[in-house]
Amino acid sequence: MTKQEVANRRFLTIGTALLLVACAVYVLRSVLLPFVVGIVVAYFLDPAVNRICRGGKISRSAATVSVMSLFLLILLPMLALLGGAIVAQVSDFAADLPQYVSGFGTKLQGGVHRLQEYFPALALENVETALKENFGDSLKPALKIVRGILSNGFAFVNVMSLLLISPVVAFYMLRDWPKFTGKLKALVPQKHQSLVQDGVGQVNRIISGYLRGQALVCISLGSFYAFGLWLVGLKLGVIVGFLAGVISFIPYVGSISGFLMAMVLVVTQYGTWPKILAVIAVFLIGQFLEGNFLTPKLVGENIGLHPVWVMFALLSGGVLLGLLGMIIAVPVAACLGVFLRYLIENYKHSEIYLQK
Q1: With contact defined as beta carbons under 8 Å apart, do 320 and 26 qualify?
Q2: Cβ proximity of 49 and 60 under 8 Å
Q3: Residue 46: which of 144, 228, 161, 179 has the closest Cα?
Q4: Among 291, 43, 261, which residue's Cα sits nearest to residue 146?
Q5: CA dist., res. 96 & res. 268, Å (int)
Q6: What is the DSSP string of 269-292?
Q7: In terms of CB atoms within 10 Å, which end of the chain has fewer, N or C?
Q8: How far apart are CA 246 and CA 240, in angstroms?
Q9: Distance of CA 116 to the CA centre of its chain
Q10: So what's the pLDDT on residue 70?
Q11: Contact 77/205 with Cβ under 8 angstroms?
């Protein structure tokens, strides 16, 4: 068997294995969510456990119990407080929703009338008809993504499994993380171990730099937006602000969508320039802090993931696999990026590229 035939067979084997894994993930997407969340939590907390165990005086199990207990003691009260605020604001907003709808329609019609004063040739009836007909259609792509996330990620059974199974998975993965990674390394052929370890190191650097840093950025931005909109006095402002911060892991989408939602709310609830300018100031300050302090300090600028590539990966993962797809999108994008760079580097040293 020639070297080319061996290479072709190896390529076919790897491609088939990856295809089977992708099919299995798609079929089991609703079942895999709590396990993937548990693995992500373990990945986030692994550096803290390693630091505690570094001296060798504390066992891995004891360090895992300590770190997981501290993590849950911080997370559960935050979820309880946030959940209480969300329930209170949603109930108030639902009670006032008819008034918001009628008020927004009246203000929108007034804006169209003022627009006609500047453009007399503009047909007012056509503008109103176009707005009414296209408003729902413009929301369909976003609603499709949200519906996919909700149907695949937030069914009642999955919520309960997230609360019950994910912490258990996180504990065992965190305790046995060195054993787990060691067994994976042992499966790599010795001939390719250095190459694979170098690629895994690059992927780990990208994922750790992006995920851990971006999580801190999202939490900081969400807290700032929620607090700022609460100070403005915006009903549902805490939810909109926090969601705008959380969605900020999708470049530009979080800030833009949060700003648009906040503007709709402030126009329907108040409609005064001081309140509108206050909301604009909250998002301008948030964007200034993110671009000049939070992202450069917490994420860094040289992680190897272009914002457009991240945006494409996250939105594609959300459409295909819901919440699970958005969780695994960045690791998959990082792996593909490292693999493509490896292919390009080999191509530049090949005879096809060098021949004249």
Answers
A1: yes
A2: yes
A3: 179
A4: 261
A5: 10
A6: HT--HHHHHHHHHHHHHHHHHIII
A7: C
A8: 10
A9: 41
A10: 92
A11: no
Spell out a b/e string for 56-86, using b for 16 or more CB atoms within 10 Å of the CB, else e.
eeeebeebbeebbeebeeeeeeeeeeeeeee
Q: Is the pLDDT of residue 185 over 70?
A: yes
- Kindly report the number of other CB atoms within 10 A of residue 189's CB atom: 9
Tokens encoding 56: 């060798």
Q: Taking a C-beta distance cutoff of 8 angstroms, is the pair 152, 323 a contact? A: yes
Q: Which residue has the tokens 């994008």?
A: 333
Number of H helices, E strands in the chain: 14, 0
CA distance 319 to 312: 11
What are 254's two structure tokens?
């979080």
First-to-last CA distance in the chain?
30
- Measured in residues, the chain has a length of 356
Model confidence pLDDT, tens digit, residues 297-343 = 777 655 666 777 777 887 888 778 777 787 788 788 888 877 888 87
| Low-confidence winner among 114-118, 274-278, 312-316 (lowest mean pLDDT) | 114-118
pLDDT at 277: 92
Burial of 44 (0-12, 13-18, 19+ CB in 10 A): middle
pLDDT of residue 96: 66
Cβ pair 243, 222 in contact under 8 A:
yes
- Amino acid, res. 296: P
Concatenated DSSP letters of 169-187: HHHHHHHTHHHHHHHHHHT
**Which two tokens mark 16?**
């088939």
Neighbours of 53 (CB within 10 A): 17
Query: CA 19, 24, 25: angle at the middle one, nearest 5?
Result: 100
Query: Which pLDDT tens digit goes with each residue over 120-141?
Result: 655 555 555 655 555 445 445 4
Nearest to 244 by CA among 285, 199, 196: 285
Residue position matching structure tokens 């456990």 = 49
DSSP string computed for 64-98: HHHHHHHHHHHHHHHHHHHHHHHHHHHHHHHHHHH
Specify the 3-state DSSP secondary structure of 111.
helix
Distance CA 206, CA 210 (A): 6
Q: 241, 227 in Cβ contact below 8 A?
A: yes
